[in-house]
Specification:
With about 425 residues, this protein is mostly helical. The protein is about 75% helix and about 5% strand.
Length: about 425
């Protein structure tokens, strides 16, 4: 019999083809011996042939390309770690997770992983077929399988995931408040110049008073805002679309944004400290899990969110691969603090690099918290002054013409 299959190789590349075998199970075994992990296999030669597993058919799209939320991963690793610590074997632990999972898509992913476990695959091999599991976690689990401490591997994955969620939340909160204040100022300008100021225009015109320059300027801005609001929206939409497109597809633009973000006052330190905290945290966890330092550095580099810091970290890795010590390689790049370089040197000399990186991760996270608080504290008075300035300018622009109106009224009364 001939079977068509879809499988993943050791490099996580998708392979499609056909194979001759007496049964479907034999076809899976042959493909497994070739180093392929089967995703879908079905008998060739008929439109009524069905996939090997119903959960491989997902109306919401291919479950192998589905993204998995960080909170879902955290819950998964925490519970698997606790169950294995309690002496429950992996297959039973996976079945418990499947039964308790409420999300249909995630349940299908867990079912397919569990089926692959029964077919002789390791957990790391089964996870490699799903894009939702980052390579960092797969490498830690692979190391846990090698040293027989899979429960510790799950706990390390959970710790990384927890810290990542916390760090992402801090960064979001750091930028949400300033963004809210900027939107508030824009909304205030639109309300004052688009709705409030025009109500005074006819009054000023009726008296024929000479308007001050500030009032004329705001009146002109108000006319543009009212007359061409649709054009302003179109231009703004084009700018936003162009920005998002370039940020997504243009590496030069991405690098420029990454460099600029590090130089913005108050915001730059948060971005840099957050990136270094993630880098040190992953390096510490990966090395403690028994992963070779070169591979640990490569995985940590790929996980850095800022493209410029990531480029600097990759340069460090290139130097380390040719025999340079990590601290010497880091000292060439200003993005790495002198204290980080010193701690890495101590860790390398004492053979406790993981502990040194762990302490630096904690330090950078504390610094990120302090920088976030500084940004919030600084933005409040700054935006208060800005909002007060906007309101004050509009109020002055509305009040000044009234003095001219009084002069016109007085002169006409005298006549």
């Amino acid at each position: 019999m001939k079977f068509k299959y879809v499988a993943m190789n050791s490099r996580n590349q998708k392979k499609e083809g056909a194979i001759e075998a007496e049964t479907q199970n034999q076809a899976v075994s042959i493909l497994r011996e070739k180093g392929l992990i089967v995703q879908d296999i079905q008998q060739a030669g008929g439109s009524d042939s069905t996939p090997t597993s119903i959960w491989q058919m997902d109306l919401g799209g291919d479950i192998h390309n589905r993204k998995i939320k960080k909170k879902t991963l955290l819950l998964l690793f925490n519970q698997l770690g606790m169950m294995m610590k309690a002496g429950i074997n992996l297959s039973m632990s996976m079945q418990i997770m499947i039964d308790s999972e409420k999300d249909t898509g995630m349940q299908k992913i867990l079912r397919e992983i569990n089926e692959n476990l029964y077919n002789g695959f390791t957990l790391s091999q089964a996870m490699k077929t799903f894009a939702g599991f980052p390579q960092v976690y797969i490498s830690i689990i692979e190391a846990g399988e090698a040293n027989g401490r899979l429960d510790n591997a799950f706990q390390q994955c959970a710790l990384i995931c927890k810290k990542d969620i916390a760090l992402s939340g801090k960064l979001r909160s750091a930028f949400t408040y300033p963004l809210f204040l900027v939107v508030l100022v824009i909304a205030l300008v639109i309300i004052l110049c688009g709705f409030v100021l025009p109500t005074f225009k006819d009054t000023y015109g009726a008296f024929g008073a000479e308007l001050p320059g500030i009032t004329k300027a705001l009146m002109s801005f108000s006319d543009v805002l009212i007359g061409y609001w649709w054009l302003i929206i179109i231009v703004a939409a084009i700018i936003v679309f162009a920005f998002v497109t370039l940020k997504k597809n243009n590496e030069d633009f991405q690098m420029l944004l990454a460099k600029v973000s590090l130089k913005i006052p108050l915001i730059g330190p948060i971005v840099r400290q957050g990136a270094l905290a993630r880098y040190c945290r992953l390096m510490s966890t990966l090395t403690d899990a028994g992963i070779p330092i070169h591979r640990a550095m490569g995985l940590a580099c790929d996980a850095i969110p800022n493209m410029y810091v990531q480029e600097q970290a990759k340069m460090v890795l290139d130097d380390v691969q040719i025999g340079v010590t990590i601290n010497e390689a880091m000292s060439k790049h200003p993005v790495f603090d002198s204290i980080l370089v010193s701690m890495v040197r101590v860790g390398e000399e004492s053979g406790m690099l993981g502990d040194s990186l762990f302490k630096m991760a904690e330090l950078f996270e504390e610094q990120s918290d302090e920088s976030t608080q500084k940004l919030t504290d600084a933005m409040t008075p700054i935006m208060t002054v800005v909002i007060g300035g906007v309101v004050g300018t509009v109020v002055v622009a509305m009040i000044l013409p009234m003095f001219g109106m009084y002069d016109v009224i007085g002169s006409s009364t005298n006549v």
